[in-house]
Target: 3'-5' exoribonuclease YhaM
Amino acid sequence: MTKKIYEHEVDEPVDIFMLIKGADVRKAKNNKPYIAFTFQDKSGQIDGKFWDAKEDEIERFQAGTVVKVTGKREVYQNNPQLRITKLRPIQAGEPYTPDMFMERAPLRAEEMVDEINETLFEITNAPINRIVRHILNKYHKDFFEFPAAKRHHHAFPGGLGFHTISMLRLAKTIVRDYPGIDPSLLYGGVILHDIGKTIELTGSMATEYTLKGNLIGHIVLMDEEITKACETLKINEDNESVILLKHVVLAHHGKLEFGSPVLAHVMEAEIIHHLDMLDASINMIDTALQRTEEGTFSERIFGLGNRTFYKPKGQTKPQED
Amino acid sequence: MTKKIYEHEVDEPVDIFMLIKGADVRKAKNNKPYIAFTFQDKSGQIDGKFWDAKEDEIERFQAGTVVKVTGKREVYQNNPQLRITKLRPIQAGEPYTPDMFMERAPLRAEEMVDEINETLFEITNAPINRIVRHILNKYHKDFFEFPAAKRHHHAFPGGLGFHTISMLRLAKTIVRDYPGIDPSLLYGGVILHDIGKTIELTGSMATEYTLKGNLIGHIVLMDEEITKACETLKINEDNESVILLKHVVLAHHGKLEFGSPVLAHVMEAEIIHHLDMLDASINMIDTALQRTEEGTFSERIFGLGNRTFYKPKGQTKPQED
Amino acid sequence: MTKKIYEHEVDEPVDIFMLIKGADVRKAKNNKPYIAFTFQDKSGQIDGKFWDAKEDEIERFQAGTVVKVTGKREVYQNNPQLRITKLRPIQAGEPYTPDMFMERAPLRAEEMVDEINETLFEITNAPINRIVRHILNKYHKDFFEFPAAKRHHHAFPGGLGFHTISMLRLAKTIVRDYPGIDPSLLYGGVILHDIGKTIELTGSMATEYTLKGNLIGHIVLMDEEITKACETLKINEDNESVILLKHVVLAHHGKLEFGSPVLAHVMEAEIIHHLDMLDASINMIDTALQRTEEGTFSERIFGLGNRTFYKPKGQTKPQED
Amino acid sequence: MTKKIYEHEVDEPVDIFMLIKGADVRKAKNNKPYIAFTFQDKSGQIDGKFWDAKEDEIERFQAGTVVKVTGKREVYQNNPQLRITKLRPIQAGEPYTPDMFMERAPLRAEEMVDEINETLFEITNAPINRIVRHILNKYHKDFFEFPAAKRHHHAFPGGLGFHTISMLRLAKTIVRDYPGIDPSLLYGGVILHDIGKTIELTGSMATEYTLKGNLIGHIVLMDEEITKACETLKINEDNESVILLKHVVLAHHGKLEFGSPVLAHVMEAEIIHHLDMLDASINMIDTALQRTEEGTFSERIFGLGNRTFYKPKGQTKPQED
Amino acid sequence: MTKKIYEHEVDEPVDIFMLIKGADVRKAKNNKPYIAFTFQDKSGQIDGKFWDAKEDEIERFQAGTVVKVTGKREVYQNNPQLRITKLRPIQAGEPYTPDMFMERAPLRAEEMVDEINETLFEITNAPINRIVRHILNKYHKDFFEFPAAKRHHHAFPGGLGFHTISMLRLAKTIVRDYPGIDPSLLYGGVILHDIGKTIELTGSMATEYTLKGNLIGHIVLMDEEITKACETLKINEDNESVILLKHVVLAHHGKLEFGSPVLAHVMEAEIIHHLDMLDASINMIDTALQRTEEGTFSERIFGLGNRTFYKPKGQTKPQED
Amino acid sequence: MTKKIYEHEVDEPVDIFMLIKGADVRKAKNNKPYIAFTFQDKSGQIDGKFWDAKEDEIERFQAGTVVKVTGKREVYQNNPQLRITKLRPIQAGEPYTPDMFMERAPLRAEEMVDEINETLFEITNAPINRIVRHILNKYHKDFFEFPAAKRHHHAFPGGLGFHTISMLRLAKTIVRDYPGIDPSLLYGGVILHDIGKTIELTGSMATEYTLKGNLIGHIVLMDEEITKACETLKINEDNESVILLKHVVLAHHGKLEFGSPVLAHVMEAEIIHHLDMLDASINMIDTALQRTEEGTFSERIFGLGNRTFYKPKGQTKPQED
Model:
């Protein structure tokens, strides 16, 4: 009902409820602490600085709480910014909860679960099917809660599951249009390829890398999970299907310099790599264009070589719920 | 009815009709001329040397003619090779024509025409629609006759059209699954992206680069075609749709070092690049795996960084008509 | 008569007339607007910040107006900077016009026109001669008004023409010293190689990239111009001279990663690339050294891999007018 | 007693016993089969072709058998080559066994075992010690039998163990000279870093890559072994020492483009990488120089960027037993 | 006796004597001068800003003087920082001299001299021995006083000598463990490899590059020194040992892009390169880890590709005298 | 008078006198020796094989002798080749000397000497003038006899001097057209930049690299020469002109990866680099095009990234003497 942050024009006054996604306490030149906030509602995220923060304010305005913000939507050095003139916690009778402000995957978790489950029936290769089910069960909750990345693409709760679903849809087109693809290996690989992120990252709020994430990385972490699944399920690790499944996970970054320890040497590995790039690219550009005026170029997109993208005139803004 | 060349085992005697696709006359160490043949039938291509070639044989056995070859299918330094023991032209009553041996796109030209025509109705942007129709008309015949490349991928007659159709099918999945894509720009860009190859290359037999192909290249040649189409159709070249259409063609190689003079700065340009890579990769791997024994690695694929691809055991060979 | 900005020592008080070349209104930490100025006179450009700017000052002090500046020449983080203590518009009786402060090509437009015209007589190849004349006529005014780049080299009004003239002079030495060069192709290519910049850029003040500049680029834009010239002049585009002329323009950046869609495959293309590099490098170094004290290193030059250049002791500053 | 192959001068007649290390049957231009032999004795390996091979000769002269070769040591295109004039199997009473001709690690397996065992006492970190012992036990035999690489460095039986021992000796110098190094992590990492090669490669004769070697690679294979060891030994995989041990193995190739999925972010990982490079480089150069005349340059060394190495004059050839 | 700067906790008040290593006068936004200090004591270096500096303070607090600092140890954007609340010069009766605060090589100069001298006896090659002694004599004082680099590694007085000694110790292990190494060339090369830094850099305080350092570089400068030594000592420059000695110095950076004009083509050159990398890497990581809390990652290390390094938990801080 | 080799058509019989430039004895598959000849006359060089060479023929037909060759001009795998049917030495009364067949610089040595000498008068900087004269005197003979490279560009006797002269001519245009260039430094640098090749290479016949060439390289060798010249001439090596002169020599390859130990940081160094590239490129292309038919592409040019160059139609072959 209330207007969301990105439904305000640039330089329009703002007086809305938002969720604090990040709250970094720093020191200003004058040595007084200030809070560098990241606010969000369903229209996106925006940064804003809160100067001369007092002890109790620092205490009160932490990540995960909902606040009422008064100020102005501005642009600073090409990035959106919120000038804060007033900030207060929600009060009794203001019926807002954090999840009302969270940008989320366009699909609900249950829908994603259903779509994954349907796909499992198309994985007819027994060892692959058993391994995928085992790992899905083990990481079930996180799989539909985690973002697909710390930033870059699908960086919202549920992003990991949603990115996987999107790739699966493309994968099904591939299986339909090209003979000779092994659906078990392709779908199994797509489902597993990024689940290691649930070990690599800390979660969906204030997302950071874990020690394992930094020192081992999600690609090898998933290889370890397949290894352990074989031990538990008594599947022979020399089974060719197991080797192929590990391979498509290990090779999905496409190049050694992007962190894959092996290059793709199996057709399905090559396909998964391209589908990953395609889906991630569309998501990154789409996210950037949502904050871009028609007829202008977006901010630079780090994950796409710092390119900017042009938003053509006369293309209407995608609706939000 | 007759067994095709790749339906013979390695070291099995061969006694079949084939089409001469290439016939290069060279000189042996002993100074006598020999012919380096490339034969083909619908199961693929194979090289073979014909020693001590006489003048009349050189005359007779030229590219484009059908011959009866007796010999043995062999493997030389990891590549298939045909040892020729006898070679003769077809004789009266042997009812073979060259096109009976030509590997072709899995779709007939008419089917491709239909599929393209249907797509044209979905290009609702007027200038893009008019430009695409104009260029399709101009290069209609070649578009469905040319290969998509001299070698590498879809290097068979009709390959250019078939590669385009395959990308269009993927593109339609993208439009269905992702909001915010402009179908006119995406489909128009896919259709035009490689038509410049009809100017860059000499044709589907003994394919070489033309002077324009070498000195200008198919990417800029297509940009020129759009420029000329605008002149002819009286479309203002400052129209944003025209600029975007040129851009998606110019940017489709994805990187400057692959010959695109600009990087993709429009969502549809980025998508076309990925679809191109995806379809070309699948075709290259598929072609290589068709000549590979199960449980072994293929020959090196030049267009994929010289990687070899593994053909899993128990995966049955794709049928050929 | 007055001392110019770079004729002041570092830390010397300044009280002179200058032209405002750029005036960017930004917001300070304290939320008050300030103006980030770029001033210039014939000795060069210098930045300076004007704090706590009021509405009428922002209105009054825009790019293109002449002002009287009081302050001090300083150095901030190795870059020259002007500390502003007072700023006022010119008053009645102060006879200054913007062009009196503009750094310009060392040649007047008429001189450049003459030198180009003389060269046209040495382009004896008919199609090249006609195409070059046609395009020169079409872009005549801009050709002698535009800078050769947004920044980097020859970034002053008339820079495009002057850069072209400088290359032509070197080209004539080449023709004299090396047999086997085609003067028509070499001179024609030099004249056309950068004219696309008149479409790529917006002009000589507050220079920015146009949409065509960003999405097509000056290299392909010039190829389009040659294509259109052929249509207009009824020159067959398959004429080898036309193909060669397009090629030398397309290849002049020397490497694919610098935006040329083809590598040089013609002698004259290779030469034009080297002459371009040579003239641009000298101009960039020369510009940087003019602001450098003897016996010290210049600021970093972005267009030369961020290298700094040493200004030897005892080398006297080049005179200005 | 007999003179070894590399104790013959170039162009000196040869009449000695050697081991056939490789025997590749190929077809000559004239379609007759020949055998491309690799012979070896303790002075090194040498190639030689055996023309017009008959069926029984192909049968008889296989890899792993000892033969008497008569011929001449030659040089062909800068590489050593053996011209074969006569070849026969050993006869009754000729007391030669294959291992008498095999180039081997300069240390006997027992010596290597002892040196490793001593080092285990210096690994005082309990989880690391247990994991290392477990894996050493599991791969004990292969560890002292395998080469360290298919070709490149330490490509002889026992090379893997010997390369490891050499690195351990350097590692001990490091621990002695630099405070702050963790000996458990450093020694444990050195011992495990290449054991994955026993899974990656097929063995010490006619060494090839296994499917796991090609599709997973020895780096990740070793990470899997640590994972499984933890399962078996009930060591918590979240134990920091376990994570660090995995990390130093994963990072030891030093760069992503060399196949490490993570860069070194732990001091001991960085050290192991440098020791690996140092020991491998010395071994490669040493091997090449043993076949190089003083005052000349060696053959190109593939593993060192195809560089050649100069053998100074007056440096005496290293003795061989 | 007093607690050193890095023996204070973060946010602990500080009231200690320190040496001013650098004192850069800059201008604040409000146009008042401030001093950007680098302080140091034996526990390391720390930056701190001194606002509103008066003329006499600028005069008094220069690099090389000892001061009493009152303030707080803080962390600013991941880097250690000292907040200064009070600053005064030492007073009569405060017995502090600059060298009491200088981080130094862990070895005294005399120890280093002894260790170098011992090594000279192992350089038995006459020309190498004479050249090394000659150059050591010429640069004796600077060799034990200079840092090994302006920043990056061993950037403290005596660092050059200490880095050389550390490499020599590793070199002796190499000579012991690997046959076929020439100790004269290896030790001579190690000793000379970086002495050119005494010409390239200005000294150990406020270290900068000299003009020769910038325009010739320490690698070629050392080659010149060997050239001049030969002239003086009447050693024939065509002597192979001289050429080899020059080569190992010229090649020690290992790659052309790191400034070596030739790649290593001699075994000892390759070894020196690796020892240099190994010793420098350990020093850089060690320095960074000394300021890092256990269980966290260090600051980024520029000389190691901007990597951060993890300091494992439970590893005790290395003692300082 | 006689027709030269490249004045024959392809496949035209040949019966002319030529000089043997190279004569490599190799062994054929049948184990009989053959001679791989490189012949030359003033129209260029051509390879040809002489089968079944007898001992006395190997003795007689060595590099540097003139012979009468009967055979045919052919093309083998895109390279020109001479089929030899008869070969005999010159006989009494046949008045041919080797230098009558040698491709030479288009200028006689005396002309080059004159042109260099004139330039010396324009080097008014005393230290530079003295150093350049000293080094020119020392290497006078070789400077006008050596090629500029082993292969690649100006690979003929006198090529070094001629390449230098060509660059000097361009350099004079630069001095004329651009103010602010130091002629002494520019001309001095041009003259010295490649003289190190007289030490790096063995001479103009059967050119190879010397040990110094391989291990030090011509760039550093020239720096050593300047160092020694200063010692001899008692010029202070700290003189800025000396440092600059060394710098322009050291930096002339333009990039570290091309073997310059420093990047250009002085205007004249940057110019010399570009002139070197320009002159070398023209020479390489020109040489290749002389053997190329009009309307076709040349062989690949190694020194220009393996590019082929197109020879336009209707461009007449450059005349020779």
